[in-house]
Amino acid sequence: MEPIQLVIDDEHELRILHSMLMEAKFSVSASDTRLGASPFSSNLIAQTLETLLLKQAEQDPSKPQSWSTWLEKKKPWIWERSLAHFLKNPPYRWNEVDLETKCNHVKWALSPYQPTENDLYEFINEYQFYYDEIMQGKEVWLRKLGYATQDMLEQLENKMDAPFPDDYKAFLLQYNGGTPLIHYCTFSIEELREVIPLEVLYGIGLNGRYDLEYQNSFAEDRPSGYIAIGESAGGGKLLLGYTQENQGVYYWSSLHQDDPACEQTLYKLADHFHSFMSSWKRMTKSI
């Protein structure tokens, strides 16, 4: 029996195939776990992208560089999805295989992104940390956003002139903020009878929009007596009250964020930060 060949030479069709493969490989709820980190899916998506690049380069020699830039921008997303996939479906006998085999697993998972040697070691170390936590029976909710020191924490408190509660400071020193890792986690607003997905809790000394100082740069952008500590998937802000009158964690709806003086959409979630974390629930859909 002769082998069956699938020939796709149309640029539009190649783009659609590439998009379909990316969606399937990095889906938050893939029905086939083999798609995430297998040599077959890795080679297929890499070959599809390579063919698409060759086709586009015939008309525009700059296209390969454009795709390279696109992949570099997609790296954090690919990394996070691959890490979540590994934690939900650990590679077979992970702790028994050699380093070369582990590196191959990571290359398959991150494809079509081509990781450097340092990327491979960094991914393996990060995965090993959360894998060991799970093996010890610990609940893993968040992916850390780096590390914060006591000095960094004290400097930020002084700069913001906002004393942080002890439980929130302990969280920053342990996690320095975080994003949901394996499962989406949610919190409830009883007054609205709504369940809200958590997007991020900000950290210290970060680049970009997840930085705690950056998010609190302008005091007039939020109600007085609160600091912004995170946000929901729908754009609402998580606020931490630090005065005697408003201690606790609050949800500030995005509906009135253009009017910081308006507290009509400010809803209390918990009296303390640790109580807020304890109230989280997992969504059925995984990351």
Give the CATH architecture of the largest domain.
Answer: 3-Layer(aba) Sandwich
Mass-distribution shape: elongated
Sheet having the most strands: 7 strands, antiparallel
Task: Tell me the count of domains.
Answer: 2
Question: What share of the residues does DSSP label as strand, in percent?
Answer: 15-25%
Give the strand tally: 9
CATH topology of the largest domain: SMI1/KNR4-like
Instruction: Provide the spatial order of strands within the biggest beta sheet.
Output: 8-7-6-5-4-3-9
**Average pLDDT figure:** 87
Number of helices: 9
CATH class of the largest domain: Alpha Beta
**Alpha carbon gyration radius:** 22 Å
Distance between the termini: 42 Å
**Category from helices, strands and their pairing:** alpha+beta
The secondary-structure element order is HHHHHEHHEEEHEEEEHE
Helical content stands at 40-55%
